[in-house]
Design a protein that fits this description.
Shape: globular
Order of helices and strands: HHHHH
Radius of gyration: 14 Å
Largest sheet: none
Helix content: 40-55%
Number of strands: 0
Structural class: mainly alpha
Oligomer: single chain
Number of helices: 5
Distance between the termini: 14 Å
Length: about 100
Amino acid sequence: MGRSKRTYEWRLTVLDLISKGHYSMKDLGKQFEVSATTIERWKIKYETLGQVSLREATLCIRYHKELKSAVIEEYIAGELSFMQTISKYGITIESVLIK
């Protein structure tokens, strides 16, 4: 996985603009050439795990099969969105559930 072009501070600034109602995720995505889905992912991580979740990951984290199964089962139960579910469990990127 490549390094992000977006700094921690930049991500905070984007989320601040959204939270103050100045711009929508779609508007900022177009302006800064980042997808609205990516911005939504940052927002959910920030709301669930706090500012630390916006920092660039420095370690490759391995998740146990049992944790992955719990995440999938909770998502299927339908109470939270997929991004909310993985954030609740501290999983920072959805692709780890595929492995």
